[in-house]
Amino acid sequence: MNNDCIFCKIATNQLPSEKVYSDEEIIAFKDINPQAPVHILVIPKRHIISADELTKDDIELAGRMILIAQQIARQFHLDGGYRIQTNIGADGGQVVPHLHFHLLGGKKL
Ligand code: AMP
Ligand code: ZN
């Protein structure tokens, strides 16, 4: 938990969010500024800054994050395809420094 991190606060329910999935180590919630009809963020509850911080110890976590995104894509009927994207650092376009996978779909991207 990083006290200055908005996604840590969402993960601990100190900030509201529209959650679509939650388990012991991962949550998913609707993006507040959607760039597509379906725009959901999948995040670890643990404060990991970005995918660049992942280590071998996180292989299962990272794999599960992708499978959860896949499961949510099915739940939202993204049958025509979708995008899973993660931005890393300032040059990668990352604004919130807590690892998140964007799940985008519902239109031709
Ligand atoms: P990134 O640019 O990859 O760091 O993406 C950060 C994303 O977080 C953006 O798509 C924002 O719209 C989204 N976001 C920021 N604050 C919130 C929030 N409180 N609830 C939901 N999504 C948020
Ligand atoms: Zn955090």
Topology:
Elements: H1 6-11, E1 19-22, E2 26-30, E3 38-44, H2 59-75, E4 82-85, E5 101-105
Antiparallel strand pairs: 1-2, 2-3, 3-5, 4-5
Bound chemical compounds: adenosine monophosphate, zinc ion
Structural category = alpha+beta
Total strand segments: 5
- How would a crystallographer describe the biggest sheet? 5 strands, antiparallel
Sequence of secondary-structure elements: HEEEHEE
Discrete helix count: 2
Approximately what portion of the residues adopt beta-strand conformation?
Answer: 15-25%
Which overall shape is indicated by the principal axes computed on the Cα atoms?
Answer: globular
Provide mean pLDDT, rounded: 98
Cα end-to-end separation: 34 Å
Q: Report the helical percentage.
A: 10-25%
Explain the overall architecture.
- The chain has 109 residues and is an alpha+beta fold.
- It is built from 2 helices and 5 strands.
- It has helices at residues 6-11, 59-75; strands at 19-22, 26-30, 38-44, 82-85, 101-105.
- The structure holds adenosine monophosphate (AMP) and zinc ion.
- The site of zinc ion has 6 residues, from helix 1.
- Residues 2, 5, 7-8, 47, 98 line the site of zinc ion.
